[in-house]
Backbone:
């Protein structure tokens, strides 16, 4: 499938704030991190929705940039209030494929990479 | 025209590793200081690292924008700050991501992170939209088949004070994931960029 066509459709299906935040999760530039830190405190539900969109874009793709997803996980662990991390972990663990035969699938790699970053020291 | 090599087909690319018998021209200026004469490129910038996870679509192409970091490309990067502050170009310039590597001889190679033309030849040279998941020509395509010392990204963004600057990191998943460059190596490469670009660049820390 052609991701150049498919992915903008996936993004457009998300609410606009979620799509904007998803782009910030992908970028993680200093200005994006500042904005995400604010949203994590002021509107945790919106933060989670944006994160979910970001991960879904990768999980539905035909490849995944594992390192960047893991790096996003590390940044999220730093940006979020500590009491928010369990709910993020729960959301991700609920999406990761349960059986090992899917371990190398793109969705598995995506969510595993994010969790690895989230729990990195 | 600025020196580049990305426009050439991969098979015609000359090897980017030059044969130097002394500390290379791009080496950190402080390498000649008495306090650092004992430092080798391995110490200054890190030992050679092999690329990991080279994607199939990266095996046959290099970015058309690929060029070496020197006074001309440094000046171009510095000058880009002017149009980047104008609304006509502000979003387009911020959407771009540049990637860089340092080769065995301490020469830095830099390129816009471009779409992979593997499946769509018509988009060769187009900047990849960093925010989504298009297939791209990543770090291994800057020195094809060669190890590098250190690698990362370069991008425009605002500081906390609202000043538009270039930011540099050493975030290359292909080269720097397994063994992260040290703080000293990161600062040393930042100094190389400052030498060519002036003070319009600063470090973006790792998470």
Residues:
């Amino acid at each position: 499938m052609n991701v150049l066509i498919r992915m903008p459709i996936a993004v457009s299906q998300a609410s606009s704030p979620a799509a904007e935040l998803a782009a910030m999760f992908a970028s993680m530039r200093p200005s994006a991190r500042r904005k995400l830190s604010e949203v994590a405190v002021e509107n945790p539900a919106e933060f989670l929705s944006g994160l979910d969109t970001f991960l879904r874009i990768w999980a539905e793709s035909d490849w995944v940039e594992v390192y960047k997803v893991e790096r996003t996980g590390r940044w999220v662990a730093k940006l979020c209030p500590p009491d928010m991390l369990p709910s993020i972990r729960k959301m991700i663990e609920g999406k990761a494929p349960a059986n090992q035969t899917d371990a190398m699938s793109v969705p598995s790699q995506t969510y595993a990479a994010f969790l690895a970053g989230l729990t990195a020291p | 025209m600025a020196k580049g090599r990305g426009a050439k087909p991969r098979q015609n690319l000359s090897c980017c590793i030059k044969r130097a018998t002394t500390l290379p021209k791009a080496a950190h200026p402080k390498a000649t200081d008495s306090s650092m004469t004992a430092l080798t490129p391995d110490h200054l910038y890190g030992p050679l690292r092999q690329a990991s996870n080279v994607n199939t679509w990266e095996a046959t192409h290099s970015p058309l924008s690929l060029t070496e970091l020197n006074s001309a490309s440094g000046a171009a990067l510095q000058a880009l700050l002017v149009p980047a502050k104008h609304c006509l170009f502000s979003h387009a310039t911020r959407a771009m991501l540049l990637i860089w590597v340092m080769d065995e001889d301490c020469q830095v190679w830099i390129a816009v992170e471009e779409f992979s033309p593997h499946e769509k030849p018509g988009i060769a040279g187009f900047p990849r939209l960093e925010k989504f998941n298009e297939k791209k020509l990543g770090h291994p395509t800057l020195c094809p088949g060669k190890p590098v010392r250190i690698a990362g990204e370069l991008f425009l963004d605002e500081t906390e004070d609202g000043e538009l600057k270039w930011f540099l990191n050493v975030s290359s998943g292909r080269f720097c994931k397994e063994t992260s460059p040290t703080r000293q190596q990161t600062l040393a490469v930042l100094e190389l960029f400052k030498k060519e670009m002036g003070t319009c660049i600063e470090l973006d820390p790792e998470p």
About this structure: Residues 1-14 of chain A have pLDDT under 50 and may be disordered.
